[in-house]
Design brief:
Layout (H helix, E strand, L loop, with lengths): L2 H5 L15 H11 L5 E2 L11 H12 L11 H15 L9 E4 L1 H13 L5 E6 L3 H9 L3 E6 L10 H6 L5 E7 L11 H14 L2 E5 L27 E4 L12 E4 L2 H15 L4 H10 L5 H24 L12 E5 L7 H12 L1 E2 L1 E2 L10 E5 L4 H11 L3 H7 L5
Parallel strand pairs: 1-10, 3-4, 3-5, 5-6
Antiparallel strand pairs: 2-8, 7-8, 9-12, 11-12
The chain binds pyridoxal-5'-phosphate (PLP).
Amino acid sequence: MHLADRFVPAWLHDFHPRGSNDGDRARLQRLAKGLADVINLNSGDPDLTAAPVAVEAAVEALRAGKTHYAHGGLAELRAAIARKLAADNRIIVDPERQIIITNGSAEAAAALFHTILEPGDEVLTTDPYYSGHVWAVTAAHGVPVLIPTRGEDLWEPDPDEVAKRITPRTKAFVFANPANPTGAVYRRETLQALVDLAQRANILMVPDELFERYVYDGRAHVSIGSLPGAADHVVTINGFSKSYCMTGWRLGWIAAPKWLAEPLADVRYALSMVAGTPTQWGAIAALSDAARPYYDEVYRAYGERRAFFYDTLTRLGLPQHPAPGAFVGMVDIRPTGRTGAAVSEVFLRDARVFLWPATVFGACGEGYLRVGLIKPLDTLKDMMRRIEPLIPALLAGAPSRR
Ligand SMILES: Cc1ncc(COP(=O)(O)O)c(C=O)c1O
């Protein structure tokens, strides 16, 4: 018997969070590898970095020897997060009991699903989905169940569609708000309907609010955890990677209902005990008033790129109606009559511009590419110069879907 047959369980054969060798994703990646000077807008890792005050605070912690375990997470950070949740999100929690600090929000999702799932339990999420949610559910032996969403609805799910897919095995609905990959921003009435549904069906709502600061077009971020009826049925996941441009710092948190906080903290402790201490000191500074002007400027810069990007595509003949959120979003390529995979390949081969077909995040992404506006404005301008000559042929050439 091969060692792998003995030690690698069967469910892992289809589990490839780091990429597999087949499918559009792999094919396009191979093509990109063979090309020079590719502008790659696939990632969701902001190019801008953490506020200088956060960097200083982390370096100062290292220098001062604040490098020991911070069991349970630094009390100062939990208090700062509780203050932020009250002020920005209108969520009231006890920082001693209900805030759990994790190594990135990826660990928050892993800890949560390992806590609440029995093998075979179902977790709802959107199609298109954020891949990390699907991985976290699958790795905890749960079964992801997809809720279709549409560009016409700015990718916001219909609560009735969520309700329809609830079975006796359903434990939760996990969704990013604002959403990666789509940029969806959930309206208050949708969120209230989801809270009501959670109470009626006795399931949990699990918002991932990592992109909360990036909401445009006059819309505002509403936290589902702030709504009436949410206290026992909402587990909020958040972190520093996106809104604070701290991806590599690996810091996230969970705001948990009181009844869940203790078992969840136990599982979280079993996974990796604690998060890094110097980074937590940096995160406290990132949440401080001193960092605000810096992050306001980050918000403005990503808004400027977003406006340039979608306005230019519209001007070039590909009309866009993007959802209001995030520095990630969708590019409507339906007027070309081609599949996302086909247009992605044309952009890559003929313009050396790499955007995923949104189908890599679920079948409902057909007709769209997914973009992360994680390059400076000048690079985006260069990108538009490269794809502009291709667009007339794309629009004229191929009415049939491949
Ligand atoms: C919606 C969403 N949630 C969570 C994550 C992972 O965040 P973290 O770096 O906190 O693990 C990402 C990263 O792309 C994301 O897009």
